[in-house]
Design goal:
By secondary structure, the chain is mostly helical. The protein contains 17 helices and no strands.
């Protein structure tokens, strides 16, 4: 059955969604502080941006044990006009990225469900959704990453609907840009093959769309991978953080993390863990095991050795990490209770409505692709490392997209 035309949302409505989202995020930044930097990863991003501006080259390390993906530091250097110390400008840029993401979610809804009313509802919900708003509070890569993920999804969907090799090429390129911002997006690369399963078009067209998407991805990622090969003489698609992340997420330190009962205990744990990472990295340097791959292999092997002695304990740890990723609210150890309640209430409502929306979805192929994103990103983070904010760009847009039709379905009954 042919799809209905994609409805036009309208310029005024789009402007209203963007403005609502922008004002909400600017108000949240005002509450958090325009010049404060509380996010733990922010100093590394700022350092990388400063070095890029000062030397014209990306630094070979941003922490003693790995270097950050380049996407967000390059963005910081650009939006601050070469002055990454302008924290207010960086936060304003993140707020604008978040507002654009709300607008893009409305456009995605219109293309998936072919309903102007659902698209407007989705855009308005995304503009006010507390978890998405929280991404813009500090100097963090998630707002840029979220926008790139949504753009890649929109372009891939549009490429499959037409079909269009040019749009697919752009979808692959934007997916690579997302991976260069947060390397966890590499787990989504196989999903660029989703057009192969679209039976609306002949096999040749499907292969052209899929091949174009993969070509766009590899052409965009290849220059940075080649840079890493020239600098480090090793194959590193994006960066060298996998081993350290696996160690942080599966070592004895993570077991101790789940014994923490207060914020003071967390701060003490964090200082001790990173001091330990620094000392281990220094020991590796003393033994001349300084290449990125050597460090990554060392931390991976050390985490496996620590967990292998207690398989049942490792299983319990994975279950705790699974709940940490799936729960719809942040930890009270890091957030004020009103924020925890607001985010949790909105997240729970979106999840329940999304279940109704997913179960009644008419476009089964798009629904199955969304479910694959949920499952693949869940499994990858639970296996590697879980931080609650990591799930927001992957899960919450899908929940919001299907919450609107889920709510409409329940109301119609």
């Amino acid at each position: 059955m042919p799809l209905a035309p994609v409805p036009a949302i309208g310029g005024r409505v789009c402007g209203a969604i963007f403005l609502l989202a922008l004002v909400t995020r600017l108000a949240a930044v005002t509450w958090a502080g325009w010049t404060s930097v509380a996010f733990g990863d922010a100093p590394a991003y700022l350092f990388a941006a400063r070095e890029l501006v000062r030397t014209g080259h990306y630094p070979v390390s941003t922490e003693p044990y790995y270097f950050r993906a380049p996407g967000y530091p390059v963005f910081l250097a650009a939006v601050t006009l070469g002055h990454p110390e302008r924290i207010a400008a960086a936060k304003a840029a993140n707020a604008a990225l978040g507002a654009a993401a709300a607008l893009l979610l409305a456009a995605l809804s219109a293309r998936i469900f072919r309903s102007r009313a659902l698209a407007i509802a989705t855009g308005a919900a995304a503009a006010l959704y507390p978890a998405l708003v929280s991404l813009s509070l500090d100097v963090a890569s998630e707002p840029l990453f979220l926008l790139l993920l949504l753009a890649a999804g929109f372009l891939l969907l549009a490429a499959g609907d037409r079909p269009s090799s040019n749009l697919a090429l752009l979808a692959g390129a934007v997916t690579a840009a997302a991976a260069l911002t947060r390397p966890s997006a590499l787990v989504l690369v196989p999903l660029l093959g989703a057009p192969l399963f679209d039976r609306r078009h002949p096999p040749r067209a499907r292969w052209h769309v899929t091949g174009s998407a993969l070509l766009g991805f590899f052409l965009t990622l290849a220059p940075w991978t080649l840079r890493n090969a020239l600098v480090f003489h090793e194959f590193l698609p994006v960066n060298d953080a996998a081993g350290s992340a696996f160690y942080q997420g599966n070592s004895d330190w993570m077991v101790r993390f789940y014994e923490i009962q207060s914020r003071n205990e967390y701060l003490a744990w964090s200082r001790a863990m990173f001091a330990n990472l620094d000392s281990q990295t220094a020991a590796l340097a003393a033994s001349e095991r300084t290449s990125p791959r050597q460090r990554s292999r060392y931390f991976f092997a050390k985490a496996v050795a620590e967990r292998s002695g207690d398989p049942a304990g490792w299983a319990r740890l994975l279950l705790r990490k699974a709940w940490d990723f799936a729960r719809p609210y942040p930890s009270p150890l890091f957030w004020p209770r009103p924020v925890v309640f607001a985010v949790g209430a909105a997240g729970t409502a979106a999840t329940l409505l999304a279940v109704a929306g997913l179960s009644g979805a008419r476009r089964r192929g798009v629904r199955n692709l969304a479910l694959c994103v949920l499952v693949v990103t869940f499994a990858a983070h639970v296996a590697l490392i879980v931080v609650w904010r990591y799930r927001i760009p992957y899960w919450d847009p899908i929940l919001l997209l299907y919450a609107a039709p889920g709510g409409a379905r329940l109301l119609s009954r």
